[in-house]
Amino acid sequence: MESPFPPFDPDGDDLPEAQTEEAPTRLRDVPLRTIFPNLLTLLAICSGLTAIRFAIEDRLELAVAAIIFAAFLDGIDGRVARFLKSSTRFGAEMDSLADFVNFGVATALLLYFTLLKDMPFGWTVCLIYASCACLRLARFNVMLDNPDQPEWQYRFFVGVPAPAGALLVLLPVYLQLLGIPESAVFSGFSILFTLGCGFLMVSNIPTFSGKNISEKIRRDLVLPIMIFAVFLTAALLSYPWKVLAGIAVLYLASIPFSVRNWGRYNRRS
Fold first, then answer.
1. Number of folded domains in the chain?
2. Domain around 235
3. Does 224 fall in a domain?
4. C-alpha 144, offset from chain centre
5. Is residue 37 included in any domain, yes or no?
6. Strand, helix or coil at 196?
7. CA nearest neighbour of 57 among 113, 130, 19
8. Is 221 part of any domain?
């Protein structure tokens, strides 16, 4: 029986010849370092599904926290897999499924139960957003197999990635938690903003990926980065909705700069 954890290079490079030989037919033990990243992905799925439950129970703060926790796990599971040298095709496929569940389905249902349930076309807007998340992930998986992609393009995503899109589309929820009263204007903004975030995910607009950040940090920047990380963590714990709303606005403001940088690299190539 073929192992569900065959060797897999996430960067698309060919594996050594010794690792491309046909796997033996007998079952082999799977090392714990291979299973651990997949456990993180599975925990992310559980967190996303729990967010749906909290949204149904009208426990809005916990629902948003569950989505954020799922995004955190999504951000580290791939890095853990690469650090442990345990990336597998099985893990890559499950990670893509987790992204759709957490940042497509769960996020859309959270928006529906908290904001869009009583609005005209609210359910239709949620369906459109979830469909955009699905299409965005399918396109991302296809583009991973493109061997002709220039190296500089790995610094950008095509469109807004699903985790960032989920945290971005929840901006109306952050504003509601900050005490913004419900009104016709706020309802219209929520609908248009949700549709806009769905469009950003399936668009060809380049956005910064952050994957090109070096693992080595200049010595003179170590202390400032550590202080900023402590400040950001303290601010997020003390004023979570203000910080999350600010991050969403800053992310939107960064898109024109990513488009400008993309154009510069494209003209040079």
1. 1
2. 214-246
3. yes
4. 16
5. no
6. helix
7. 113
8. yes
